[in-house]
Structure formats: C-alpha cells, structure tokens
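Hey,
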Amino acid sequence: MTDSSKNKQTALRVAVAGLGAIGTKVVEQLDFGIEGLELTAVSVKDPEKHRTMLAKLKNPPPVLPIERLSEVADIVVECAPSALLRSIVAPFMKQGKTAIVLSAGALLEHDDLFLIAKQNGGQIVVPTGALIGLDAVTAAAEGTIFSVHMVTRKPVKGLAGAPYIVENNIDIASLTAPLKIFDGTAREAATGFPANLNVAVALSLAGVGPDRTKLEIWADPTLTRNSHRIDVASDSASFSMSIENIPTDNPKTGRITAFSVIAYLRKQRSTLRVGT
C-alpha cells in the first residue's frame, strides 16, 4: 500500500453546510488542501447560485441535501441559517461524529443535542470565531468565575433587521451618534439578535453560561468594523480582551470567523497543537 493510499484511507471527511462568506472560504481552503482532511460534500439552498464558484475548485465536491451529509462525512461545518441548525447537527450527533457550529445562539434552543452527542459519542464544537481569549475563559471556568461582561459595538448595517430592533421599533438608520440598544444576558441576545451575536453565546458556553454572561450592544454609525470588549473576573485571573473585526461582504460576519474554523480544522491532524 502506498503512502498516498494510506493518507487517503485515514483522511477525515469534511462536509460544509452553507456557502455564504464563511462556508465559501472554508470550502476553498479545504480544496486547496488541509493535511489529513478531505472535502467530501457541500449543501446549499440554491446550488445554481454557487455553480461558478464550485466549478473553479480543483476537486468540486458533490452538492447534497442536508440529510445526506452525515452519510459521506465525519465532520460537518455548519455555516447555514440558524433555523437549519438541528437538521444539520442532529444526524452527526446520532452517529457519534463531529459538528462545528457557527450558529451558536441556536444551540440554546436545541440543548438536547448535547445529550444526544453524549449518548452516542458525538462532539459539538463552537469555534473561537470573532472573539479572542476563549481559551483563557475556559481555563478560568475550571476554577470560579465571578463575572463576565461583554460590550459589542457594531456599524448600523451590521445590526439592521435584527428581531429585537424591529420588535422594539428602534430607529438605527438615522443615528448620528452611538446608541446603546441592548443591555441584558447572552441568552436574551441570542433571541433578539440571532444573526449578530453568536459570539456572545460562544463566550457564555466557555464560561458561566448564557444567563450570567452580561452583554451590552451599541449601534455606532461612526464604525466600519465590529468590535467586542470582554471583562472577566475570576479566582485565577482578572482579564480584559478587545478585538475589532474586519467584516466580509456580509456586514454581520467578520473575516476572522472563517479563519477560526480553518485553524480548528488544521489542528485535527497537526503534529503541533497550540491552545486548547
């Protein structure tokens, strides 16, 4: 048996659900090559829309319905609308496989997926995404975390259409100065801003949970980048972290989010792994 055939046999098979800004970047990198991984399928609502992009790949993967992805992959990268989370993740959990979840907020509505994963040996991975320092928060959670407070500031177009803004008739289109539009918990933010604040839920899952993670959201017409500041107090360390994310063509999504997924995928077969 040749070395190449051995590598082919042991490669982890990866499927990507959703071909927006994140999914497209992940697919392109997998096609370019990540050691020990193989892109085996994608799923997308409108295949015709992405036909040109897929045709440019060295090895275009088959486009399959969501329900068939678990048949051909060991890992699924979920980058789809949050309403599709369960249909993407559940089959992988039932088969003891891995799901990398970007729609972290939707996990709070489907927390039985954690039990399904535990019963079958599956794993749900929430990547660092647009935040920094989740390793530090996870480490602090091994002791006692007293408080986690996050302040998110976004350009107006990055918050447009959020259910919380619509339901409360908040006019952000005509803002000329920063306005605090939300002050509550990560769980409340996940409901009110399902496409905007997955980062807050990721932070809460790493630390003290969605009901104790406090969050402020500001709409700021002077900004062109999404920014997050996190303050954590614990019995092992007190620390603050801040990041400004350059958006993709989708103002709700930072470029670094896709890179975070790619970095996690590289760790799966890497001989050197830095960070948890």
